[in-house]
Specification:
55% of the residues lie in helices and 33% in strands. By secondary structure, it is α+β, with helices and mostly antiparallel strands.
Amino acid sequence: MRLALLMIPLIALTACGTPQERCIRQSTSELRRVDMLLGEVQANLARGYAWESYDTTITRWEVCGTRTVTKGDKIIETPRMCLEDHTITRRRAVPIDPVIETRKRDNLLAKKRELTALAQRQIAQCRALYPEEAK
């Protein structure tokens, strides 16, 4: 159920834009993904380490209801506290092998060149299939 609720804004955003814009967005999705990975690898090389995400559980007090107390003619509701476990995501620095990261960067740059040429052809096709009116 929660996943379905999270997908609604994504579907709404996907439906946005003209047919040409949607076609171009779809045609360049892999190129954007490679750009994101390339940026991450280049940042790792510049820093000398990478960031790793991990989940951990913490326990904290939460209000989990109320307790009714009667004192004479007064009825008082007080919060009832419980210990609840929560999973949180943290990140930590991890060492990298600069040789491997450099190889990744070089491979991603080659892939980016390949995808850029492909995307340019696909964008031209999108513009031919869905011409937009001049504004």
